[in-house]
Amino acid sequence: MGSQPKVTAVILNWNDSERTLFCVESVRDCQYSNLDLIVVDNGSTDNSKQQLESQLRQENLIINEENLGFAGGMNCGISEALADGTDYIWILNNDIVIEDSGIVQQLVDVFESNDEVGIVSPLVRKHPMTEQVWFSRGEVNFSNGDVGHSNIDISSINRELLQSEYVPFCSPLIRSEIFDEIGLISEDYFLYYEDADYCQMVVNEGYRIVTAVNSVIFHEVNVSSGGMFSPLFSYYRARNRWLFSKKHGNENFNVLLYLWWVFKAISHRILYQEFASAKAILQGTLHGLAGKSGKGPYPKS
C-alpha cells in the first residue's frame, strides 16, 4: 500500500496568537501521518511573533513584516508548501476548531475517488460547538455580485457531496495542481471575495467544487473582522463586491442592482446608528468604482 498523499495546512495569524496556537494543536491532533503545517504571521503588531516563535519550530513559521491581506499572507504559505511538493493545500482560518481527528483523511478521500473535484470544503458549523450550520453550500448572484450561503436542511441530504458555486476559504482542501494551472490567490481584494474569485476560476477550468457534508468543522464567525458593522468588514465587502462583479459578472451584472444593495446597506447601518460602517461602505463603493484594489484604508494598523 502506498504512502498517504501529502497535505499541508496553512494557518494565517494576525494579532491573535492564542487562537492560532489553539488551532495548531487541533491540527496536530488530526490522525493523518503525512500532514505538514505552516503558520504565517501577517505583520502582527502585538506580541504574536514572540508567542509563535516560542511555540513553533522555525521551519513551520513565516514572519511577514507587514499585513499582506488574506490572500497575500496565505500565498506565502502556499508557495512554500508547493515548493516542498505537497499534494493538497488545506487553508485554515485561525478561528477554526477541529473536533474530528479523521477529517483530513475524509477530505482527501473525496479527491482520491473524484478526479473532477478541485476544491472540497467540510460542512461548517458555528462555534462554540453548536448544531447551527454556518456553511453547507455557496451561491453566487452574478446580477448584483452577492456571494452567500444557501444552507439547506442537512438531514434531507441523501448524498455525501453537495455541489457548490463557491466555498469560503476558512477550511477548504485544494488540489496542488490547481495552483499550477490557475496561479495563486488574487491579492487584488486584500480581504473578502478572494475565495469567490478563486472558486470561479476553478469552475472555469472545468473542476467541481463540493462540500463534504459528513465532514464537520466549527468556525468562530467574524472574529478577525470585528463583525458585519465594523468599518473593515463594510469597506472591503462593498469595494470587492464591485471588483468581483466587474471581473466575473459579464452580461449578467446589473449596476443598478449593485447600487440598490449599497443604498440598502448604508440605510441599514444609519438606522442602527452605525455611522462609521455606513461611511466605510460608501468609501468602499467609490474606491471600487474607481478601480482601486489591494490594501485600502483598513485596518488602520
TrEMBL record:
Residues 9-139 form the Glycosyltransferase 2-like domain. InterPro entries: Glyco_trans_2-like (IPR001173), Nucleotide-diphossugar_trans (IPR029044). SUPFAM superfamilies: Nucleotide-diphospho-sugar transferases (SSF53448). GO terms for molecular function: glycosyltransferase activity. The keyword Transmembrane helix does not apply. It holds the Pfam family Glycos_transf_2. Keywords: Glycosyltransferase, Transferase. Belongs to the glycosyltransferase 2 family. This is Putative glycosyltransferase.
